[in-house]
TrEMBL record:
Lineage: Eukaryota, Metazoa, Spiralia, Lophotrochozoa, Mollusca
Cell division recorded as keyword: no
Protein name, entry field: Glutamate--cysteine ligase
A family per Pfam: GCS
GO molecular function: ATP binding; glutamate-cysteine ligase activity
Natural source organism: Octopus sinensis (East Asian common octopus)
Amino acid sequence: MIVNGQHNYCVMLFLSRITAKNIANRKTERININVPIYKDKNTMMPYGEDFSEYEDNKVMKKHLKPGHIYMDSPTFGVGCCALQVTFQAADIKEATYLYDSLIPLTPIMLALTAAAPIYRGFLSDTDCRWCSLSQSCDDRTMQEQGLEPLTNGNILVKKTRFDSVGSYLSMSDQFYNDYDYSYDAEQYELLKAEGVDEMMSRFVAQLLVRDPITLYKEKIDQDIINDTDHIQTIIASNWHSIKLKLPDEKSGWKVEFRTMEVQLTDFENAAFVVFMLLLTRTIVTFKLNLLIPITKVDENFLPAQKPDAINKEKFHFRKDVQKESSELTQDIYSLMTLNEIMNGKDDFPGLIPLIHKYLDYIDYDFSKRPKIMQYLKYISDKAAGKIMTMAQWTRQFVTNHEEYKNDSFVSDRITYDFIMECEKIVNNEEGLPQPFIKC
């Protein structure tokens, strides 16, 4: 299995001016992003912004939601960095198993890596980039959003291009798909007629709901028997929380985990990459079952983005990950804290103890374990609330700054001092950043 940590710079390049223009043109209006503002004691409420200095302020006023920070460029979404990890599977069977198994973890890891509480110079009431990302890549028309009656064969598209996945892939997992996601019925029937199984047919058909957002003129004419550029273009412009990647001349089926936020230091990023790698091996080796209804995964994205989710929120998670179930009932999952999910509790083993069990099972060389143990302890302590997330530390830095006036505004001076402090940490810390450790 190959793991590759990567940042969102490739997405930034892909979402060039032309791509952004294509999104706006298809949507037939400019991109609009609204992120809830953090309500401090001196924040003017109801919060609103004065757009009088802008020529097209009527358009801005139309889209601005009260109590929200308004943005109108994809850069405010895709400009946020991510830590995306790609795993190579042995074959398509293992790839779909990994794909399904990792879906319930997407909001969990988003909360654990939370690192984006500031937008356009204001503290927001969210710790993560996900809500701005999803809105920044929304090219749906009014009809597709359900805001106008459907005509000319258009269908309702419930999610944006950058959103959580709509379904599990394996046929054996289909009863967890309790979400009525959109897909191209004609393409679905065509795939079924060609012998593709039902779930994979629906998966591809839901990708084909969307138009290609970019297409290079030199690649319009393709050898459809041997070239996969057309379908790769579709897959590449559907930025879901998990992505199934097709085989190519260099590698086989791959699964990309896409929700984690990039951390400040190499140590932290390495810890999360290693954790995810070990967790996938643990899942495959012990045949763990993490699945819960797909709608509960979507529900988990809401608390995952809230401030201090590690200490304040609970998430739907499977109660017995070592037992298969053929029935979909509320008994298979319960609400757990991130600490309970990662470190366990009386009736749940915890993901990190399961990883330790896996390392013992494969008789992993003890001489090579110290660094891995450091990484796992870091993840464990973070889930337990002993170490601040980047978002928590950022909020603390801003609110404790002498120039902060408890009004949600992050001034240029605060921003400069924050960047200098980040640079100092990156240059001076070889391991866990000490300022993140709670006293």
